[in-house]
Amino acid sequence: MVTFHLRLFIADTSGFGPISVLTMAPVYKLMYFPVKGIAEPIRFLLSYGNIEFEDHRFERENWPQIKPTTPFGQAPVLEFGGVKAYQSIAICRYLAKQVKLMGANDIEDLEIDAIIDTIADLRTKIAVYYKETDPTIKETRKKPLLEETIPYYMERIEAIAKKNNCHLAAGKLTWADVYFVASLDALNFLSGTNLIADCPSLQVMQDNVLNLPGIKEWVAKRPVTDV
Ligand SMILES: N[C@@H](CCC(=O)N[C@@H](CS)C(=O)NCC(=O)O)C(=O)O
Predict the structure, then answer these.
(1) What is the pLDDT of residue 25?
(2) How far is the CA of 75 from the centre of ligand 1 (A)?
(3) Would you place residue 19 in the very low, low, confident or very high pLDDT band (cuts 50, 70, 90)?
(4) Same domain, yes or no, for 137 and 81?
(5) 111 and 205, same domain (yes or no)
(6) Mean residue pLDDT across the chain
(7) Which of 54, 115, 197, 198 is the most buried (most CB within 10 A)?
């Protein structure tokens, strides 16, 4: 569970005991569009840590008013204790520290960061295809994405999972596993394919992550959205 900097010192009025100290948990508010998108790994990590949060999903038509209130005109933003945290991966790394899903040393953290950045690279390539508005150009991008780019990445990510005992780094559960599994629904939707269809180790990893207490409860109660 999370501890926080805000401490209340309460004078003991009984005359017998020392001063009591109450440590308060921060109140987390996640601001994002009404989708899983790049906020879902944040929701998974908060849920894994049994950290309560306000899942504030704003409608797209309200974004023009909200945008200027964010640090860099983008979402997600995680607000807590006077902090407005931005950049989804930085937020995930912070939460991973809070819920103890980091590596055991700098090398393990390097391994985790590298696979997280690789997943983000793959998402960027998929997003370029998805966001293409010209149907002719989109069609020309489909075959290379589905037959070259995605297989290239997924073969390598699967090999890493196989070597790491069905994990993405350090041979154990880390925030990389949670990040990848939380990202999958959106990546599958955007690419129109099941990224892990031919990846048995990643399928095991997905099952394991989705069965973690906290995450299992979150997935059962979260709003149903495609992406
Ligand atoms: N690198 C940023 C990317 C943030 C981003 O692209 N957010 C999109 C939604 S997924 C957004 O805010 N789009 C609206 C806009 O840019 O006006 C992160 O990971 O947080």
Answers:
(1) 75
(2) 5
(3) very low
(4) no
(5) yes
(6) 92
(7) 115
Query: Exposed, middle or buried by CB within 10 Å (0-12, 13-18, 19+), for 221?
Result: exposed
ipTM for this prediction? 0.99
What total number of domains does the chain contain? 2
- Shared-domain flag, residues 114 and 159: yes
Q: Where do we find the tokens 């010192």?
A: 9
Cα(173) to ligand 1 centroid in Å equals 27
Closest by CA to 44, choosing from 170, 186, 188, is 186
pLDDT in tens, 103-134: 999 999 999 999 999 999 999 999 999 999 99
The CATH number linked to 45 is 3.40.30.10
- How would you classify residue 91: left for phi > 0, otherwise alpha for psi between -120 and 50, otherwise beta? alpha
Same domain, residue pair 116 and 205: yes
Q: Is 88 in the pocket of ligand 1 (CB under 6 A)?
A: yes
With respect to residue 77, please indicate whether it lies within any of the assigned structural domains. Answer: yes
Q: Is the CB of 67 under 6 A from ligand 1?
A: yes
pTM for the model stands at 0.90
